Amino acid sequence: MSAKVPPKTPILDTISAPADLKNLPIDRLKALADELRAETIDAVSVTGGHLGAGLGVVELTTALHHVFDTPTDTLIWDVGHQCYPHKILTGRRDRIRTLRQAGGLSGFTKRSESEYDPFGAAHASTSISAALGFAVARDLKDEDRNVIAVIGDGSMSAGMAYEAMNNAGHIGGRLIVILNDNDMSIAPPVGAMSHYFARLVSSQGYRSIRKLGKGVAKALRVEEAARRAEEYMRGMAMGGTLFEEMGFRYVGPIDGHDLDQLVPVLRNVRDGDNGPVLIHVVTQKGKGYAPAEASDDKYHGVAKFNVITGEQQKSKADAPSYTKVFAGQLIREAEADSRVVGVTAAMPGGTGLDLFGERFPDRMFDVGIAEQHAVTFAAGLAADGMKPFAAIYSTFLQRGYDQVVHDVAIQKLPVRFAIDRAGLVGADGATHAGSFDIGYLGALPGMVVMAAADELELSRMVRTAALIDDAPSAFRYPRGNGTGIEMPDVIEALEIGKGRIVREGSRIAILSLGTRLEESLKAADALAAQGFATTVADARFAKPLDEDLILRLAREHEVLVTVEEGAVGGFGAFVLHLLAEKGALDRGLRVRTMTLPDVFQDQEAPFDMYETAGLNARHIAAKALEAMGKDEAAAERVAAALIAG
């Protein structure tokens, strides 16, 4: 009877760091890539997160860590949402199922997490600029190491990438940029001829012949004609003329899933000359997982899912998402007014403008990852009489702030900013939190800034913005589902700069801006049960403030607490400024402002993030009691009542 052959140890089980990949032959690297893809799929099925982009770079990640000496060689991932395979290979496999969880791994690259993440990123198009900084620092310190930036073709739609390439070409130092083209938006189909050219132009032999040819051309005084002939021959064959004009040697396109092609090209470039090089790699988003290949948009970012069927877990909440409420009301506005148009920066699905685009395909404009352009494009539309709604996440609108100031606000152009993902965002953490828009928009003269407390208020703010034709306006709303409030058939506009009293009391006033209103009402219930009659008001507007409402609250109550889902220096600061200017603080009013804490918060579940931030009902009640001079026992009784409720 023959002895049983013991099962082979998975290659991935033998990898604790990139150094373990160095001596693996190509066939073993291919097997490792298969295991790495399976591990990524399984991990994301447990945690949720970005899936398609990571699956598309499994072979590229494997090849990069095989060829280059990371972390001595600097490897920078643009955006960072494709870095899950990278994390698995760089000593974080044992924690990969903590992705995007409290206390776990970030869903993006993060300097404090690993020495293999030399530069943190979660926004697009930063990698080449950062890599150039590393390359110049290396040269100034006279060090010998490679610097590699991996950037997707989507990120190449942003001007910052070209600004960086232009500067890199001017400086001329050694820098490797890998263009990960996963949309076939630049490359011709990859075939044998493309592979041949890529290996040819990256090889030492080609460079030697090229150098010799340059010498001959110079001697014959025809070097400019020879340069142009080679450039345009290669441009027609490989599409690299643009990059060559910017000072980069172009290599590609090559199949990003073919390790037989990837590894020798990366080695050739690693061992090559000292100028900037761009390697054009073509990949397939979602590669190796059929559901993701078939629907790469739905598997870009996923909830937890069943690995076998690909079915994602659905939210059980019955209320519609704020994003869908915005889209629905915008469609109604566009049906009534042909001047209404939608503008977004590569986020049609995330902002709901995909739904608007289905109804009005000629009036929806996705400008790519180019927030600066999106804002000024919208300004141009407004200047010529259209009614543009620029739907941009709060955290991404930061990238276009100068345009908001210079091109919109100074000219008083009626661009309407629909600010999605306002407040904390849970698993995406600090990089995607909408923390600062109240302060940075509220600082601008003439800007109207609104914050919706629920889905009805959001619909009314869309309606209001559509009617503002003499000033820029913005309305902010959070990620996630609404409150389930009943929606009327007719949506009425708001009076500009007017809030509302939701509940009347006599001792404490809670003035809420945005969706903390629900928590404010819970706090008021608990306070009232302890004998502290509490007024709750919905400010609606951070700018212009409802001065009459605020001064009335100050006049008729002992304590005024402001609550907002924004950073220090926002709504609460505006209210304090008003109270100080009007002398309301001189009469003994006790004021407390509740904001997001003055830190960048890491990822947690949404409720827990607000618990950490101190903006849930028990915190609001405790803040009011502290202002009243009550001891901790009173706050504990209120907290206990809230928990019991």
N-to-C span: 70 Å
Number of domains: 3
- Structural class, judged by helices and strands? alpha/beta
Write out the CATH superfamily name of the largest domain. Answer: Thiamin diphosphate (ThDP)-binding fold, Pyr/PP domains
Largest sheet: 7 strands, mixed
> What percentage of the residues does DSSP assign to strands (E)?
5-15%
Rg computed from alpha carbons, rounded to a whole number of angstroms = 28 Å
CATH class of the largest domain: Alpha Beta
Observed structural traits:
single chain, 645 residues, alpha/beta, Rossmann fold, 3 domains, 26 helices, 19 strands, globular
Write the layout of secondary structure elements.
Elements: H1 26-47, E1 49-50, H2 52-56, H3 58-67, E2 74-77, H4 84-92, H5 127-140, E3 147-152, H6 159-171, E4 175-181, H7 192-202, H8 204-219, H9 223-238, H10 241-245, E5 249-255, H11 259-270, E6 276-282, H12 290-294, E7 301-302, H13 322-336, E8 340-344, H14 348-351, H15 353-359, E9 364-366, H16 371-383, E10 387-393, H17 394-397, H18 401-409, E11 416-420, H19 437-442, E12 448-451, H20 455-467, E13 473-476, E14 500-503, E15 508-513, H21 517-529, E16 534-538, E17 541-543, H22 547-556, E18 559-564, H23 571-581, E19 590-594, H24 606-613, H25 617-628, H26 632-644
Helix pairs in contact: 1-3, 1-4, 3-11, 5-6, 7-11, 8-9, 13-15, 13-20, 16-18, 21-25, 21-26, 25-26
